């Protein structure tokens, strides 16, 4: 590269000085003596000593390049001897995974050939380089903690889908999932690993040993006396099961943990370039430290933290010479991580806020000024990749100092506007899985994370019932237990404060990405983020079955909470500036976003079905209510698009298989989807066909005109398309008349909020439910410990052997509980804290308000995506089931009103004709059924307006034919339980004596009948002469079917039990049989409920249908009694078999139901008589 310091021009990229001495004054260059002193101070020799002034060469900008070449050549000369091919190694100098021939099974290999994801049962792959002599080391970054065997193998090892590294004679492996070592046989070794750990694999071919380290801590020698000699060379290798993933570091980046003495990485570091880069960085530091006092004519020491360029030509040209050599080096990942990132981190080590270190901003300005654009781009990309890797794979320490360190530097880099926009546009979502920055990993080994020091005292609740649930009878807490609990809570608070520091930094990153004021030099950051965020959502929504493409749900949970915090910050900030706007406490998504085509919902299902179908069937409503006109030609295009859907999906499926096929034949693979830019495909094309526009509502629909509207794909949208301007409403195009004409917030924030709701639906709710498992484990071990302690107290003194075994068990359970209680503290702080609960509650309220506003639009409600209703139901379920007992939903502000509004939504929409999806209708019905199970939520249903309650009951009483009726019937039964004959039990009485442990089968809640809803039901049956017979006939029909099926099945069960050659019954058949019995009982209870509440339906002969209904009821009752009560009948014999799965089948449940019907009929007949 030619020098940027020699020549005659002075431009941005090439700073050159005129050779005429008089020009120096004009350009502001200092005098030659001072310049000479300055350049000698900056560019010191290799030993750091400066020769005496009389022996120094006189330096000017004309001979500086020559001087610099000589200084850097000195470094090269001293290092050349070390830059030789290492003895004992065979293969390419750049070590990667052998994707052409050195693998077995189906694997996805990263495009740098260092990352690998298992895509088959047990795939294996080795590196391209082997070693036969000396001491060698490489690192493996564990991205998932599943089944993997990591180590070394020879070329002769043959692997398959069942046997991998460590399963053949000349292969050796460590497996941190099962905590074992493998070499044909297996024994216990090492510690368990977790996602985010780093395994170091060491081989000493001089001594014949193999060892492993976990996060820099030696696990000891795993194997000795390994086979050596002629023809024996060992390759790094791994076998991993489906969807497990790792990344290798053979030496292309600095090893995370210092080299064990005498061991070398398989790939040599770039020693010459490293020495040159460090030397140039030293010169750069000298420039920052040394200032020029022109007035005094001397050099001065400067405060580096506040250094600024301030337009000094001498300094600028000096820096240009340095960057002339430094820039190309900063495109190499090893040098960026070892030199540049280390230097930037050292700037922040002085403490204080990131804003207190403007030097990093100045250095980034210099990079953009003095480096070629492609060099800056590559350098920033490698810097962010190194930061992400460092953050992800840093061990958890008590103060989380490492994570805080890397996040602070990330913030400092993203504070630089030009760098932030480049990274957002090209790196953060396209190349990196940047969501990792918002994740706080949970430590699997609490002792290494320092939780023992942070939470020295452990505690767990120990008041449990036999079912493992916390007892309602709160016993007095002992003084010792109270002290333990309080000490544990104090430890949890200490942990929470430290984690909140990390969470605050993560929110700062998102605030930078959501900045919409940085419009200098192009689009504001927020609008770049919006488009990338939408692509990220599409990738996760469209590939829900492809685990290698999806963002892991544990990342999504953390990302969701940080994004909510950043969103509410900007939302309330806008409210402060615009008082008429809504606060974040009143946030909702206006309904026009769902039909105006401005926001892409991909192929997600709408409440009314497919979007293309809705646009055709509701086009008149769109025009009349929302002033939105759909071009007929565009509608035709949509129709054709639907016709091509199957063909296109087949094509995309074929394309998705190509990487696998490429790997199978030894071809190089592209980076997996979550590491590269997602392809939009059909969703992008669909946006371009959904042309919508405003029209004058008074214009007759018959005179449609072609209106030119920009058809937008996600990446084409601008700030104006989102926020709107000059009469253009942006995302709010097509406001329906029912929607209030008032500002809500900035349109871009509405789209972020919509994306947050979608994220919760994609995977967050599932993860919240999964993490409850740790709490369940604590409960189980606490039960086991309590049981063991009771046995110890009852153990006879003479049985020392039993006593010792019980003491061992007690110790194991106590140690496990100590570990789990500390881990649970971490999970409660990061996932189930009060603040996280408030976020989920806020999301529930957003969904409720959005559904209420959408409902008012009439037929346009059908455009709402189904996930809004799903999130409303699931977030309530999470609040009720996942966050307790740590936090109670009842403590949330406005809890009662929110419960009632959700009840109104469920009551109205479970039978809403505008909702056509079977799955979402079933979910609504199940949510309503769950709602009426619990007293608190049942009272919320009773508080909704009377008109809605009556409408709900009328829908529940619709005939059972032509619709799923079992859930409806179950809801009616729940409203009745506690009022029927012999129907006030919580547990099945016939099981209390025979099998107390099964007394809760099926699991029943305590009865909580609703007399108010019963009254509505009675009024409807009495007043509507057509409703009662149609409803009761359908119930009687279903009862005939269910009980007949049950009788048929127990006949088959009896026959199977009597056969000598086959004395077992299929468990599925038993389950179906028990279900039919439970259905029969519940239908009988609904009939009992009807007879009790409105007996005149059967007994009032003025009603034309009464006699027929009474006759049918008597026939069904007789049928049930005959089958159940006959002596030594079929029913008796099956019940006496006591088959597992048929515990609920007994005389009692069905006999009391029939008796209840008959008693009410007799009593009411006497009354009427």
The first-to-last residue Cα distance is: 113 Å
User: Compute the gyration radius: what is it?
Assistant: 37 Å
What's the mean pLDDT score? 81
Number of strand elements = 21
Strand count, sense and barrel status of the largest sheet are: 8 strands, mixed
Shape: globular
Protein name: RING-type E3 ubiquitin transferase
Keywords: Metal-binding, Transferase, Ubl conjugation pathway, Zinc, Zinc-finger
Catalytic activity: S-ubiquitinyl-[E2 ubiquitin-conjugating enzyme]-L-cysteine + [acceptor protein]-L-lysine = [E2 ubiquitin-conjugating enzyme]-L-cysteine + N(6)-ubiquitinyl-[acceptor protein]-L-lysine
Domain B30.2/SPRY: 75-255
Task: Report what the structure shows.
- This protein is of the alpha+beta class and 1169 residues long.
- Among the domains are: 177 residues, Jelly Rolls, CATH 2.60.120.920; 157 residues; 206 residues, no CATH class.
- It contains 37 helices and 21 strands.
- Strands 3, 4, 7, 12, 13, 14, 16 and 17 form an 8-stranded mixed β-sheet that branches. The protein has a 7-stranded antiparallel β-sheet with strand order 2-5-15-8-9-10-11, with no helix packed on it.
- α32 runs antiparallel to α33.
- The N and C termini lie far apart (113 Å).
- The N terminus is likely disordered.
Secondary structure topology:
Blueprint: H1 23-27, H2 32-42, H3 64-79, E1 89-90, E2 103-104, E3 107-109, E4 115-118, E5 122-126, E6 130-131, E7 135-142, E8 148-153, E9 171-175, E10 180-183, E11 185-188, E12 198-204, E13 209-214, E14 217-224, E15 235-241, E16 245-249, E17 264-265, H4 271-289, E18 290-293, E19 298-301, H5 313-329, H6 333-348, H7 359-370, H8 373-392, H9 401-414, H10 417-426, H11 451-454, H12 479-513, H13 525-542, H14 553-577, H15 611-617, H16 619-626, E20 628-630, H17 632-643, H18 645-664, H19 682-689, E21 692-694, H20 719-723, H21 747-794, H22 800-830, H23 834-855, H24 867-881, H25 895-909, H26 918-931, H27 935-943, H28 946-956, H29 966-976, H30 989-994, H31 1011-1023, H32 1027-1058, H33 1067-1093, H34 1096-1099, H35 1106-1125, H36 1130-1137, H37 1147-1168
Parallel strand pairs: 7-17
Antiparallel strand pairs: 1-6, 2-5, 3-4, 4-16, 5-15, 7-12, 7-16, 8-9, 8-15, 9-10, 10-11, 12-13, 13-14, 18-19, 20-21
């Amino acid at each position: 590269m030619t020098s940027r310091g020699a020549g005659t021009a002075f431009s941005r990229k090439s700073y050159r000085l005129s050779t005429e001495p008089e020009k120096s004054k004009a350009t502001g260059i200092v005098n030659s003596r001072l310049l000479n002193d300055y350049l000698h101070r900056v560019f010191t020799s290799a030993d750091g000593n400066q020769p005496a002034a009389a022996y120094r060469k006189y330096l000017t900008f004309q001979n500086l390049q020559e001087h610099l070449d000589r200084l850097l050549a000195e470094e090269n000369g001293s290092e050349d001897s070390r830059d030789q091919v290492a003895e004992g190694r065979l293969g390419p100098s750049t070590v990667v995974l052998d994707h052409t021939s050195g693998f077995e099974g189906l694997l996805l290999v990263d495009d740098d050939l260092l990352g690998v994801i298992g895509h088959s049962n047990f795939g294996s792959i080795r590196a391209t380089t082997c070693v036969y002599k000396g001491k060698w080391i490489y690192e493996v970054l564990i991205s998932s903690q599943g089944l993997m065997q990591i180590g070394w193998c020879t070329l002769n090892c043959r692997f398959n889908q069942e046997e991998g590294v460590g399963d053949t004679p000349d292969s050796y492996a460590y497996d941190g999932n099962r905590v074992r070592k493998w070499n044909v046989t297996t024994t216990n070794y090492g510690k368990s690993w977790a996602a985010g750990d780093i395994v170091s694999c060491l081989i000493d071919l001089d001594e014949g040993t193999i060892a492993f380290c976990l996060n820099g801590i030696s696990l000891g020698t795993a194997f000795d006396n390994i086979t050596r000699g002629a023809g024996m060379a060992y390759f790094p290798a791994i076998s991993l099961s489906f969807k497990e993933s790792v990344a290798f570091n053979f030496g292309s980046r600095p090893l995370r943990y210092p080299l064990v003495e005498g061991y070398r990485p398989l790939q040599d570091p770039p020693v010459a370039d490293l020495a040159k880069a460090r030397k140039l960085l030293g010169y750069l530091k000298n420039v920052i430290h040394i200032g020029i006092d022109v007035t005094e004519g001397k050099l001065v020491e400067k405060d580096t933290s506040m250094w600024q360029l301030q337009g000094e030509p001498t300094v600028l040209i000096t820096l240009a010479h340095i960057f002339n050599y430094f820039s190309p080096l900063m495109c190499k990942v090893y040098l960026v991580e070892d030199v540049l990132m280390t230097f930037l981190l050292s700037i922040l080590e002085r403490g204080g806020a990131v804003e207190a270190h403007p030097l990093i901003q100045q250095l980034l300005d210099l990079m953009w000024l003095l480096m070629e654009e492609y060099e800056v781009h590559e350098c920033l990309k490698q810097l962010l990749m190194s930061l992400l890797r460092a953050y992800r794979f840093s061990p958890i320490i008590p103060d989380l100092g490492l994570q805080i360190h890397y996040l602070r530097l990330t913030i400092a880099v993203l504070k630089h506007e030009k760098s932030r926009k480049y990274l957002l546009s090209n790196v953060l979502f396209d190349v990196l899985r940047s969501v990792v920055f918002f994740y706080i990993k949970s430590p699997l080994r609490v002792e290494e994370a320092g939780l023992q020091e942070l939470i020295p005292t452990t505690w767990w609740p120990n008041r449990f019932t036999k079912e493992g649930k916390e007892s309602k009878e709160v016993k007095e807490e002992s003084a010792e237990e109270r002290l333990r609990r309080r000490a544990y809570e104090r430890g949890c608070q200490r942990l929470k404060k430290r984690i909140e520091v990390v969470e605050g930094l993560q929110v700062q990153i998102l605030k930078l990405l959501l900045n919409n004021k940085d419009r200098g030099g192009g689009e504001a950051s927020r609008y770049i983020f919006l488009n990338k965020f939408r692509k990220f959502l599409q990738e996760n929504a469209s590939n829900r079955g492809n685990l290698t493409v999806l963002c892991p749900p544990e990342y999504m949970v953390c990302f969701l909470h940080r994004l909510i915090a950043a969103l509410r910050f900007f939302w309330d900030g806008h409210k402060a500036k615009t008082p008429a706007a809504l606060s974040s406490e009143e946030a909702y998504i206006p309904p026009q976003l769902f039909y105006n085509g401005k926001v892409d919902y991909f192929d997600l299902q709408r409440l009314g079905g497919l979007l293309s179908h809705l646009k055709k069937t509701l086009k008149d409503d769109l025009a009349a209510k929302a002033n939105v006109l759909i071009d007929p030609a565009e509608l035709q295009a949509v129709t054709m698009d639907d016709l091509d859907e199957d063909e296109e999906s087949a094509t995309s499926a074929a394309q998705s298989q190509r990487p696998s096929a490429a790997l199978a034949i030894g071809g190089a693979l592209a980076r997996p989807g979550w590491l590269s830019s997602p392809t939009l495909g059909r969703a992008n094309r669909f946006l371009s066909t959904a042309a919508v526009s405003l029209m004058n509502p008074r214009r007759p629909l018959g005179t449609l005109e072609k209106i030119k509207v920009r058809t937008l794909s996600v990446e084409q949208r601008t700030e104006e398309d989102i926020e709107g301007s000059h009469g253009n409403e942006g995302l709010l195009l097509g406001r329906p008349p029912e929607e209030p004409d008032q500002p809500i917030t900035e349109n871009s924030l509405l789209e972020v909020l919509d994306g947050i709701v979608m994220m919760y639906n994609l995977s967050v709710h599932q993860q919240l439910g999964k993490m409850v498992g740790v709490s369940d484990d604590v409960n189980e071990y606490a039960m086991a410990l309590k049981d063991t302690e009771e046995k110890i107290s009852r153990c006879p003194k003479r049985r020392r052997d039993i006593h010792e075994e019980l003491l061992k068990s007690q110790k194991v359970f106590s140690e496990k509980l100590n570990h789990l209680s500390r881990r649970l503290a971490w999970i409660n702080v990061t996932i189930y804290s009060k603040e996280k609960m408030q976020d989920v509650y806020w999301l529930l309220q957003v969904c409720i308000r959005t559904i209420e506003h959408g409902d008012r639009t009439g037929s346009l409600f059908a455009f709402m995506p189904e996930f809004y209703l799903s999130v409303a139901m699931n977030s309530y379920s999470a609040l009720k089931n996942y966050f307790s007992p740590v936090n109670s939903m009842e403590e949330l502000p406005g809890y009662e009103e929110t419960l009632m509004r959700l009840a109104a939504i469920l009551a109205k929409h479970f039978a809403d004709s505008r909702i056509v999806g079977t799955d979402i209708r079933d979910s609504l019905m199940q949510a309503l059924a769950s709602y009426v199970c619990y007293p608190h939520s049942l009272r919320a249903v009773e508080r909704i307006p009377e008109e809605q309650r009556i409408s709900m009951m009328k829908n529940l009483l619709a005939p059972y034919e032509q619709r799923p009726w079992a859930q409806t019937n179950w809801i009616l039964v729940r409203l009745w339980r506690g009022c029927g004959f012999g129907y006030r039990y919580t547990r099945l009485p016939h099981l209390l004596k025979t099998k107390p442990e099964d007394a809760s089968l099926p699991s029943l809640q305590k009865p909580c009948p609703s007399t108010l809803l019963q009254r509505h039901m009675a009024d409807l049956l009495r007043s509507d002469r057509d409703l009662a017979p149609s409803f009761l006939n359908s119930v009687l029909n279903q009862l005939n079917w269910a009980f007949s099926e049950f009788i048929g099945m127990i006949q088959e069960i009896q026959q199977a039990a009597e056969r000598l050659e086959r004395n077992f019954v299929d468990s599925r058949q038993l389950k179906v049989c028990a279900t039919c019995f439970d259905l029969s009982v519940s239908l009988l209870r609904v009939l009992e409920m009807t007879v009790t509440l409105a007996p005149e339906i059967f007994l009032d002969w003025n009603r034309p249908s009464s006699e027929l209904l009474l006759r049918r009821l008597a026939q069904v009752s007789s049928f049930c009694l005959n089958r159940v009560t006959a002596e030594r009948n079929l029913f008796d014999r099956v019940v006496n078999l006591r088959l597992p799965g048929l515990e609920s089948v007994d005389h009692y449940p069905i006999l009391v139901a029939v008796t209840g019907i008959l008693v009410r009929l007799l009593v009411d007949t006497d009354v009427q008589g």
